[in-house]
Amino acid sequence: MQLNIIQKITGTLVLESGLHIGAGDSEMRIGGTDSPVVKDPLTGQPYIPGSSLKGKIRSLLEWRHGLVLAAGGAPYSFKQLAKDENNSAGRDVIKLFGGAPDNAEEQLVSSIGPTRLAFWDCPLNSDWKREAADSRNLLITEVKSENSINRIAGTAESPRFIERVIAGARFDFTLSLKVLAGDDLLDTVLLGLRLLELDSLGGSGSRGYGKIKFAALKLDGTDLMKQFHAITPFNQTA
């Protein structure tokens, strides 16, 4: 097993609707929001954690490849693959994302090798901030009020205030892909990105939050958009 190269996929992640990835701050502030978005502690600007992208894309690939029930809803791991070693899709998912092995799967762990993907945190694109936000004195986040409807009284109840990064915001997207001898995993990575475009990122996707698209994707500086758009998530063999 030999590491041939570490490739870098870069691009722009564009928000098509407001994005909420929570900061995990449960403290209620007077005049503040109930649920702020995660922000860089140095710049105060919102960013997209690499862990949020990794978790969502892995989850979507597991659903697409029919791996979710085998793991009982937990991330698909070496334990499930050991019972179905010919599952090539499951093997690829573990190659890309890793899989919490234990001693029982030592031989399988050795045959698969290291986790191939590393997602980077995505900072706000500085050009977009300067040209689209700062030049018009736009705030980068908005506070959206929500509530529940009492079905009998027809009245709004339980108001809450959710902070979102505004639609149109752009983030610098980067991930690293380790390529070992014999690997052919790029299309699976692109499938995961296409599935994310079709679904949503962050919280409240069923209510219209977190719709995104990728632009200007490149692999080590070479344009990837044609190959990316050629991926048809539901016409491929799962």
From TrEMBL:
<dbReference type="GO" id="GO:0003723">
    <property type="term" value="F:RNA binding"/>
</dbReference>
<dbReference type="InterPro" id="IPR013412">
    <property type="entry name" value="CRISPR-assoc_RAMP_Csm3"/>
</dbReference>
<keyword id="KW-0378">Hydrolase</keyword>
<dbReference type="InterPro" id="IPR005537">
    <property type="entry name" value="RAMP_III_fam"/>
</dbReference>
<keyword id="KW-0540">Nuclease</keyword>
<dbReference type="GO" id="GO:0016787">
    <property type="term" value="F:hydrolase activity"/>
</dbReference>
<keyword id="KW-0051">Antiviral defense</keyword>
<keyword id="KW-0255">Endonuclease</keyword>
<feature type="domain" description="CRISPR type III-associated protein">
    <location>
        <begin position="13"/>
        <end position="213"/>
    </location>
</feature>
<dbReference type="GO" id="GO:0051607">
    <property type="term" value="P:defense response to virus"/>
</dbReference>
<dbReference type="InterPro" id="IPR052216">
    <property type="entry name" value="CRISPR_Csm3_endoribonuclease"/>
</dbReference>
<comment type="similarity">
    <text>Belongs to the CRISPR-associated Csm3 family.</text>
</comment>
<protein>
    <recommendedName>
        <fullName>CRISPR system Cms endoribonuclease Csm3</fullName>
    </recommendedName>
</protein>
<dbReference type="Pfam" id="PF03787">
    <property type="entry name" value="RAMPs"/>
</dbReference>
<dbReference type="GO" id="GO:0004519">
    <property type="term" value="F:endonuclease activity"/>
</dbReference>
<keyword id="KW-0694">RNA-binding</keyword>
